[in-house]
Amino acid sequence: MKKYGIVDIGSNTVRLEIYCDKGKDLIRFFKKKENLGLTSYIENGVISDKGISRLIEILSDYVNISKNIRIEDLFIFATAAIRNSKNVNEILKKIKDSTGIEVDLLSGNREAELGFKAVTETFGITSGLNVDIGGGSTEFTLFDDGIVKLSKSMNNGSLSFFSNCIEGIIPTKKEAKLIKKEVKNYMKSEGFSKNVRKQITGVGGTIRILGRLIREYYNLGFKTYFNVEELKTVVNKLIEQDKATIRMLLQLSPDRIHTIVPGALILLTICDYFSVEEILVSESGVRTGYLLEKLQK
User: Is 150 helix (H, G, I), strand (E, B) or coil?
Assistant: First the structure.
């Protein structure tokens, strides 16, 4: 049985997932996550030596784990935090020199298309809008009849908005308004048409945690979607510093306490722009799309 590993160097986390290939299916049997927060190491557009060193430590650990499990191939890619850094070439060289790893640096558009691939595989949807809210960027993919028609990447995500716009942990109403304005201005500048889309799909940790938080808040059973009114209520409770709602979030995902609200504000702005009523949540995302593409499944 062949085994494959994939490492996702994101703005919030660095994740390792290992899968075994069972013919038509890929089964994940191991995962590990480090909450590095690469974006927090950026100073004047440059990731600091401390941030690079910490990243190399994590990657070296992941390489050793992969060797011990005896995987066939280890695929490693990076997204917005490294992509948008002024010292990107230095970072990639230091990683290669220290670990022997060649990192695949994804463009924003390619990241968006891989998220789309995962969604179409998961839900069998052939037309729609997919949104991936990451720590350092937000990807949009419009697709029709299974073909990508438009792919865009905004160089802001949940963690970068937190770092650049928020003084405390949870944004104030004024800070929330600023974030929503930034997102709306981006969408206008990119010429997104305001076609009504009652349902969109979403991938990434922010949207998955929001789905779980909404289920917890409303005491709902498992479901793969949530509606915009539910989202607005929960986000307003968090901005109002409602202790019970904040406690729910801390129980679900304490490491995302500072990024969930800015991520939710991005999502709400997108929903307002397209008059969205419902968000379909995919448990698969860019990592799944990347691995499927590599293995041509």
Answer: strand
Q: What are 37-76's pLDDT values in tens digits?
A: 898 899 999 999 999 999 999 999 999 999 999 998 999 9
Residues 141 and 196 both lie in one domain: yes
Interacting residues of 168 by C-beta distance below 8 A, sequence separation 6+: none
Structure confidence at residue 183 (pLDDT): 98
Same domain, 117 and 77: no
CATH of the domain at 164: 3.30.420.150
SS3 of residue 172 by DSSP? coil
Strand order in the sheet with 104-105: 25-34, 14-22, 3-9, 73-78, 104-105
> Is the full-model pTM beyond 0.85?
yes
Could you tell me if 83 and 106 are in contact, meaning their C-beta atoms sit under 8 angstroms apart?
A: yes
Name the one residue in this structure whose structure tokens are 């499990």.
Answer: 69
For 42-80, b/e burial (b = at least 16 CB within 10 A) is beeebbeeebbebbbebbeebbebbeeeebeebbbbbbb
For 257, how many CA atoms within 13 A lie in the half-sphere containing its CB? 13
Angle ∠(148,151,154) on CA atoms, nearest 5: 160
- Phi, psi of 50, deg, nearest 5: -65, -45
Q: Under DSSP, is residue 183 helix (H, G, I), strand (E, B) or coil?
A: helix
- The answer on 183 and 60 residing in a single domain is no
Give the strand pairing for 73-78 and 104-105. Answer: parallel
Return the structure tokens found at 2. 């062949």
Residue carrying structure tokens 């793969």: 224
**What's the CA gap between 267 and 176, in Å, rounded?**
12
The one-character DSSP state at 203 is E
